[in-house]
Amino acid sequence: MYVYIVPVKSFRCLKTLHFLNVHNEVFYVPQGLVSYSMPAEEIESVSLPVGWKSYISPEGRKYYVNTSTKGTTDVCICVCQLHGAMEMEESFDAEGSFDDVSCLSPQSPGSTSPARRQNKEKEIKETKITINCVTFPVSMSAPEQQLLKPSEWSYCDYFWADKRDPQGATVSGFEVLLQKQLKGKQMQKEMAEFIRERIKIEEEYAKNLSKLSMFPMAAQEEGTLGEAWAQLKKSLADEAEVHLKFSSKLQSEVEKPLLTFRGDNFKKDMKKYDHHIADLRKQLVSRYAAVEKARKALADRQKDLEVKTQQLEIKLSNKTEEDIKKARRKSTQAGDDLMRCVDLYNQGQSKWFEEMVTTSLELERLEVERVETIQQLLRQYTTLRHETDMFNQSTMEPVDQLLQSVDPAKDRELWVKEHKTGDLRPVDMDI
After folding, report:
1. Bias category Polar residues: which stretches (predicted)?
2. Which DSSP symbol is given to 11?
3. In whole angstroms, what is the distance from residue 30 CA to residue 37 CA?
4. Percent of the chain with pLDDT over 90
């Protein structure tokens, strides 16, 4: 026989409690358990609904049960949990009537039945996972997220998780982005140093060319070949001047811009970004810790409530009922605290998310700016280099022209005219 034991203070709530049974919101306890009695003075004034009867316990207290026969010896209480009945009991108004049915829906984690709470937690765990205090969807159970900037490989889409560095330390995605910026600054500095070495080489080369052009070697060469040789030596001096100008332009148009692009304030700006995001992440860690603490507190309260409920099964007393009421209130409060902590955590994570998107896009913009700036400076380098080649070629043109004019016969004529000793040839001696 199923015996539906109903905790009541007034018969006016019996239909409501019976309505719960229609939805099969029940759990089972050993036969013989009774939970609440009804004041005797109300018995006579209200007729029992069909199927309900009153019984008198050995102590003289009246109880009200539904005596529908189902061929079993269990007893079923027609509420989700015993502490759910306590919530309904607290919903009675001052006149003893049941006016509020809001208790039929769970108001907080503390108001949810253990079975439903466990199922809900299991469902959440299956679809979400928290890593280093950041909550992510489980990729296998959640629909694929749409990228914020599809097909752009944007920073704001690929740096949400943490990673391990070669030493095994945890590095956040934002730290990876910051390291990219700092590395870019270092690469820029090293490029400037490279250009400085190139300038030194050009200056040294120009100095040596100029010095070589003044060497008196082969200065006595004559004729058209002598003219070409003299022009070649002069072209060294002209080429030295070209390389000196090239080194000067490298210094002013390439090296200096590389050094001055993003000065000392750049690192300070990066530190501001780092501290800002780190503070938000620390706040998130703190709020996650609060959630876990509240979750543990709720579990402890619910466990305490279950223990007191089991005690009620063994022995019914007013003290036990009062303990259950108190445990129920504490469980509900713990559930409310957990909801508040989760809400604060979600707010903190949303703020961190927004700042991550904004800041990562700013870092992305800075990186694009860096690459484009260096690209322009290196193009300027190649332009200057081509100009140098062009000017060097121009110094060779007179040499080429004179070399084309070299005429051995002409040189011989000129030399003979200048250095001849006589044009009369020797003849045979006469006897």
Report:
1. 104-116
2. G
3. 18
4. 54
**Its pTM surpasses 0.90:** no
State the CB neighbour count (10 A cutoff) for residue 138: 11
- Tell me, what DSSP letter sits at residue 262? S
CA distance 204 to 221: 29
52-56/62-66 β-pairing: antiparallel
Residue type, 140: M
User: How far is the first Cα of the chain from the last one, in angstroms, to the nearest whole number?
Assistant: 175
Euclidean distance between CA atoms 106 and 191, whole angstroms: 65
Tally of CB atoms within 10 A around 271: 11
SS3 130: strand
Find, among 143, 147, 144, 168, the residue nearest to 158 by Cα: 147
Instruction: Let me know: does 180 contact 371? Beta carbons within 8 Å.
Output: no
Rounded to an integer, what distance in angstroms lies between the CA atom of residue 202 and that of residue 246?
7
Q: Which of 5, 2, 12, 1 is nearest to 62 (CA)?
A: 5
Cα 69-71-74 angle, rounded to 5 deg: 85
Residue 252 per-residue DSSP state: I
**Distance of alpha carbon 249 from alpha carbon 383, whole angstroms:** 11
- Tens digits of per-residue pLDDT, 243-259? 999 999 999 999 999 99
Q: Which pair of tokens denotes residue 377? A: 């400076």
DSSP 126: H
Place of tokens 């208790």: 103
Tokens of 431: 């006897």
Q: Strand pairing partners for 135?
A: 130
- Over residues 160-182, the pLDDT tens digits come to 999 998 999 999 999 999 999 99
